[in-house]
Model the fold of this input.
Amino acid sequence: MKLSNRTKVMEQGEMTLAERMYLPAIVGGMATTLKHFFSKPVTIRYPEQQRYLGPIFRGHHILKKDSEGAERCTACGLCAVACPAEAISMVAEERKPGEEKLYREEKYAKVYEINMLRCIFCGLCEEACPKEAIFLRHDQMVPVFSSRDEVIYGKDKLVEHMDQRYLRDGWK
Amino acid sequence: MNLLTDIFLAKAAFIGAVFAITLGIAAYSTYFERKIAAFMQDRIGPDRAGPFGILQPLADAVKMFMKEDFIPANSNKWLFIAGPCLSMLTALMTSAVVPFGDTVTVGGVTFDLQGIDVNIGILWVFGIVSLGVYGILIGGWASNNKYSLLGAIRAASQNISYELAMGMAIIAILLFTGSLSTKAIVEGQQNGHWNIFYQPLGFLIFIICAFAECNRTPFDLPECETELIGGYHTEYSSMKLGFYLFAEYINMFISGAVMATLYFGGYDYPGIDFVTAQFGSTVAGFVGMGALIGKALIFVFIFMWVRWTLPRFRYDQLMGLGWSGLIPLSMYNVVVTAFGILIGKPFTAGIVGFLLLIGGMVVYDQLFVKKKIA
Done:
């Protein structure tokens, strides 16, 4: 009794005449390559053409604003705690009277920094955030950097601009 | 005297043109090799240098020239340099006897579109092709490296083995023509009486041997990377390596031209009488030259097509195919052709001989070969 009863016994006898003459197999192989010669290439010319990576691709981080244009982040620090690479750091500040248009909650992040060398783009910060403030956008990647002082991204690079708001495909 | 000078100049111009065309086609063969490989693997291939990458051969040449020209310390320096030169020389010399076209008249001078019409044309091709292996052998030996030497030995034995079958295949052609002159062979095939219809088996043998002579896949054992690093050109770099690779592409084009000359009517093409009547024999001659080059390029495509389809032979399979497969077949072909000429029906004899061969093999297979148990 075999283990699975699915064993296939392969014949290793003499080759048939057609097999010994090589030529039928060669013609068959050449037909296959000719078929591929006329088929469409699958190459994507990367820098010019970019492939759609799906609605849940984890790319460049963004700090969302609400519909009135106030920052959603309240500097609770849950994202920094959740981050397995310890890439996020922030400094909290109390909202002054008159800043209600700028910050949604009474406390906000004065400094919010992500070290892009440490970040592993796992998306745990996005899951941890109770205020739906931080997201990893699906349509844009963090660009390649060439020196170490370009690595730390502050609020200037992270906060959403109201004239080009980020919308994920599922939110519409 | 004046006429002699004119003919000399016209010949010089023609030889220069053939030289330039051969080199140009060889250079662009490298580009098309990569493109065809890419298309057959569903890729795009080189497309960065110029539109569709057509400047790629230039970029490659610049790269080859800029690389360090290295000669190993323990090599035989002069032979090391002579190897690629000899390869290139023999590759370029073969085209001298290929008839590129019929007689044309330019500026009052009438001359043949052929380097030299010698009465031993085919023997010349064979002689030069045999010399071609010296380039590989000298290069491989002078490198003072075991891999190179192995590659060179393989090249030598492979070329000698396949030259025999190739020569036998040509003997059948010579039986038809009664002349060794390439011009006479082409003239015997005019108006669609191409030798391929009379010699299908001979052509099959010849094209297989041509693959082996050009060291192309599936017969590229002299330079197989997996076993011998780079074979005979392991130690070569810079333009010396470039010469070896270039000579291979020139050989491909020339062997395509020789196959077109021997089996596909040379510069003959359908409608040659119409073109001659409408535009005169000079235009017809140049169109014929285009036809021959076109046929040769089709063969170059087949060379590449096969390369990107088949894996290479094992060495004992290669020798088995050459000595116990192709040589008996080509002997059989010579006998059938001679019989056909004797009874005066070469076409029927060729077809019947081919069918008899297939039938004989089937019968032998049924009677004597052990069958798989179904």
Remarks:
- Residues 58 and 96 of chain A are 34 Å apart (CA to CA).
- Strands of chain A lie at 61-63, 88-94, 107-115, 134-136, 152-153.
